[in-house]
Amino acid sequence: MNLTVDPDDPTPPYEQLRRQLVRLVETGALAPGDRLPPLRQLAGDLGLAVGTVARSYREVEAAGLLVSRRGGGTRVAADVRPTPAPRRLRALADGFRTEARRLGFSDAEIRDALTAALEAG
Amino acid sequence: MNLTVDPDDPTPPYEQLRRQLVRLVETGALAPGDRLPPLRQLAGDLGLAVGTVARSYREVEAAGLLVSRRGGGTRVAADVRPTPAPRRLRALADGFRTEARRLGFSDAEIRDALTAALEAG
DNA sequence: GCGTTTGTGTCACGCCCTTGACACAACACT
DNA sequence: AGTGTTGTGTCAAGGGCGTGACACAAACGC
């Protein structure tokens, strides 16, 4: 599931987890209905207290992305529609363009850089 | 100077500031020798305590990017070489490629998305 | 030289976060 | 029905962080 917490990051663990969960749902890596790890299991894996993981789940649930039920675990809400892949790609491209232009590069240079990146790996 | 702190972000203010400072120096937005705002002024502008801003300055100085002197203010270290623009562009392109491929897109689709982004604005 | 500016250091106070443990309630499974 | 699982809630304790105020030291500007 690829959830991690960086102890050296001053950002509170519950917030690191929350952002990753939101991202997993919005990107569709977790589909509606998918079950998340139980609180205790995830807490054990990440070296966190149960209450800390519970807070992350609770906040993402409050955002409407998850649904928790006692005994039933926590699952991705059925009505969440992951952002369509084309939209996400476009958002990535927009971000790349904006940052690259901020550095003062021309469109041609930006294209060349992408070509180099694609050919490299 | 475009330094901001988001009160709603659980990330500690000193850390938000620190990251922005590092970024400004590494991108060359702040050149070696450039003077940063005095502690008290920046603290006042951002609505922070002097000690909080001081901590950010201190940590970036510990990283070798700044030099502080009493009465002389805080300046960008003379020996810091901003990461060359071409390298930064290439890093941006690599990041874009990696994320886009993770979404399952082909090289052609990635190129098309960039083209669309460039034409859009 | 003198006053001002500026960074540094300290202190107590309060808030937020994490932890660990525990009890409880609702669901799943047999 | 009974057992185990799972999420929820509480509590006290400790640590990290921000704040505000203050004193101090070093450099600047006149």
Automatic annotation (TrEMBL), chains A, B:
What keywords tag this UniProt record?
A: DNA-binding, Pyridoxal phosphate, Transcription, Transcription regulation
Which Pfam families would you find in this protein's record?
A: GntR
Which residue intervals define the domain HTH gntR-type in the entry?
11-79
Q: What PROSITE patterns is this protein classified in? A: HTH_GNTR
**GO molecular function terms noted in the UniProt entry:** DNA binding; DNA-binding transcription factor activity
| The keyword DNA-binding belongs to this UniProt entry's keyword annotation | yes
**Keyword match Ribonucleoprotein:** no
Matching InterPro entries, A to Z?
HTH_trans_reg/aminotransferase, Tscrpt_reg_HTH_GntR, WH-like_DNA-bd_sf, WH_DNA-bd_sf
Transmembrane domains' residue ranges: none
Task: Kindly list any coiled-coil regions of this protein.
Answer: none
Highest taxon of the lineage: Bacteria
Name by which UniProt lists this protein: GntR family transcriptional regulator
Q: Which organism is it from?
A: Nocardioides flavescens
